[in-house]
Design a protein that fits this description.
The complex is a heterodimer of chains A (about 260) and B (about 110).
Chain A (H helix, E strand, L loop, with lengths): L1 E10 L8 E3 L1 E5 L2 E2 L5 E9 L2 E3 L12 E4 L11 H5 L18 E4 L5 E2 L5 H11 L3 E5 L10 E5 H11 L12 E5 L15 E4 L3 E10 L15 H10 L3 E10 L1 E4 L3 E4 L1
Parallel strand pairs in A: 11-12
Antiparallel strand pairs in A: 1-2, 1-12, 1-17, 3-4, 3-16, 5-6, 5-10, 7-8, 8-9, 11-15, 13-14, 13-17, 14-15
Chain B lengths: L13 E6 L2 E6 L6 H7 L17 E6 L2 E3 L7 H5 L2 E3 L3 E3 L6 E3 L3 H6 L2
Parallel strand pairs in B: 1-7
Antiparallel strand pairs in B: 1-2, 3-5, 3-7, 4-6
The chains are: A alpha+beta (about 260), B alpha+beta (about 110).
């Protein structure tokens, strides 16, 4: 049954920094190709969550990270060939590590050609007073699950509930979706335990609601905090917004792809 | 205003809590967090994880002193503002506590 479509696809090259919208993407068991490949580790960070993010430095959400080889990191070269290899397909060959090189532009307009170069971390350390280092992995760094889904209707309804315009980007989802169901703005919550087919290949199980933190209080364009959005979620939505999914069948996803309930 | 202290039992019997523009006098038992006391008093205080991770119970300590088991969800800027996590906060002195969840007032002061 057709229940909606993909509004937009987003990945976040550096955990906590601004995301980038992409026209299509390969989605593996480990999430979107190129999603949260880099993280900034704080020496004084919590042992269970050592990442330096907008929770520690609000303006961190304004840093723009982008891949030098952005196109190369959308779809693996041999993806089509892997679909026909055994059920449900084998892991395609990801580009070599150097293709994942990321440049970063700071809110003040300074550009660092390589996040792993010495200057970026040195300057961030100076700014924050923290001892920091860059960690990288091609398979992503996630707080909970590697795939997050959030609906445009949920963003609109939350805005209506608290009387302000709520930018969907606050929720840092991978897939923003548009549901056909017009009666329930939080329709994704009703899909827990269900399997969805997205586009021609991808299949996901919706596993749980997405518990939120102070990251959503930060305006993605100004980093100005609106704590009452998180307070509202806590008081009216059990602190959750959007859902997490687990990938059951890997594959390519395109902007506009149909979403079917299996 | 924030102090780390384990000796926080029975220092105060109640505290002032502001939420949605309304003031409440909240009784607090020895060992309770400010959030636990608020919820026990049937106040709809914002909260979610109750473990200091999410920041939903972030509030403005306008008076008094507390010790926090964790400040993980507080940025340095929010600590400077005098924000605390109600779920992690226990009284750490006999000074009267005023906890304000209407954070927009604190932000307004900065403009």
């Amino acid at each position: 049954m057709l229940i909606g479509k993909i509004d937009s696809i987003w990945r976040y090259p550096v955990k906590g920094m601004r995301g980038e919208e992409v026209p299509h993407i390969y989605t593996a068991y480990t999430g979107l190709m190129g999603d949260r490949i880099y993280g900034v580790v704080a020496a004084d960070g919590d042992p269970g969550h050592p990442w330096h993010t907008g929770r520690d430095q609000e303006e961190f959400v304004l840093y723009k990270a982008s891949y030098e080889s952005s196109e190369e990191l959308l779809l693996p070269d041999n993806l089509d060939a892997t679909y026909s290899e055994w059920e449900p397909g084998i892991d395609p060959l990801y580009p070599d590590a150097d293709a994942f090189k990321v440049k970063v532009e700071t809110p003040s307009g300074v550009t660092y050609d390589d996040i792993e170069g010495p200057d970026f971390v040195a300057d961030l350390e100076k700014l924050t007073g923290r001892s920091l280092r860059i960690h990288t992995t091609q398979r992503g760094i996630f707080d909970a699950r590697p795939l997050s889904i959030f609906s445009l209707s949920a963003a609109a309804k939350l805005g209506e509930e608290i009387g302000m315009s709520v930018d969907k980007r606050r929720f840092r989802a991978n897939f923003y979706v548009e549901w056909d169901n017009q009666d329930d703005p939080f329709y994704e919550n009703s899909l827990i335990g269900k399997t969805l087919k997205i586009g021609e290949w991808l299949e996901v199980a919706i596993v749980e609601r997405d518990p939120r933190c102070t990251m959503i209080t930060l305006d993605p364009d100004t980093a100005e905090a609106t704590p009452r959005l998180l307070q509202h979620l806590g008081r009216n939505h059990a602190g959750d917004a959007g859902v997490f999914a687990a990938v059951l069948q890997r594959g390519r996803v395109n902007k506009g792809d149909p979403i079917l309930l299996k | 205003m924030t102090q780390r202290s384990e000796d926080n039992t029975g220092l105060i019997e109640s505290f002032r809590l502001t939420l949605d523009g309304e003031d409440h006098a909240v009784p607090i038992a020895a060992g309770e967090t400010l959030l636990q006391a608020a919820l026990a008093a049937s106040i709809d205080a914002p909260h979610s994880c109750t473990e200091g991770r999410c920041g939903t119970c972030m509030s403005w300590l306008r008076n008094g002193k507390v010790s926090m088991a964790s400040t993980r969800a507080l940025s340095p800027r929010n600590i400077e503002r005098g924000y605390v996590l109600a779920c992690q906060s226990r009284p750490s002195s006999s000074a009267p506590i005023w906890l304000d969840f209407d954070l927009w007032k604190a932000l307004l002061n900065e403009r």
